[in-house]
Amino acid sequence: MSTSPRPKRYTCVKVCLTCGDRKTKKRKTNVKKGSAQPAWNEALSFDVSEEQLSRAQLCVQVCRHGSSGVSCSASLGGFQLGPGGSNVTEEGQRHWKEMLANPRKAVSRWHALQPNP
Questions:
Q1: CA 109, 17, 41, 62 torsion: positive or negative?
Q2: Which helix (H) or strand (E) covers residue 96, if one does?
Q3: Rounded Cα distance, 33 and 7, in Å
Q4: Distance between CA 63 and CA 10 in Å, rounded?
Q5: Nearest to 8 by CA among 38, 40, 41
Q6: 87: DSSP letter
Q7: Within the chain, which residues score under 70 in pLDDT?
Q8: Between the CA of residue 94 and those of 9, 14, 16, 38, 57, what are the distances in Å?
């Protein structure tokens, strides 16, 4: 049994809004420190025009930070939300439709992380 202390974990969630092939906006949660099972419970919002909605997608990534918690050192996985596309799961499409049906309201769901969203 090792007596050395476990390294602290620093994680955050990065969300990128894309329209077509172009990244348009980014948001990031606060960094959670020292938790093996972090929960952020933070609302991230984007203003998107109606004309952009048919091409828009959200790419969500959970990132591990270095020991200082300053910069992202690795993606732990993620998922995408949107009207369709090769990397959007059925759950991601359902979540997207629910968000569109409830503008200006928080719509939260659990998603399984995929290796490279």
A1: positive
A2: helix 90-101
A3: 11
A4: 8
A5: 38
A6: T
A7: 1-8, 67-71, 117
A8: 31, 21, 19, 24, 13
Q: Give me the architecture of the 10-80 domain, per CATH.
A: Sandwich (2.60)
Strands (E), 9-117: 10-19, 22-28, 32-33, 56-65, 72-81
* pLDDT at res. 70: 58
pTM of the model: 0.81
Are 19 and 83 in contact by the 8 Å Cβ rule? The answer is no
Alpha-carbon distances of 73 from 62, 69, 96, rounded to whole Å: 11, 9, 29
Q: Per the structure block, which two tokens stand in for 6?
A: 């476990």
Residue type, 64: R
Tokens (6 digits) for 112 = 């399984």
Place of tokens 């910069």: 71
Which amino acid, residue 56? A
What's the confidence (pLDDT) of residue 51? 87
Q: What is the pLDDT of residues 73-83, one digit of tens each?
A: 788 999 999 98
State residue 67's pLDDT score.
63
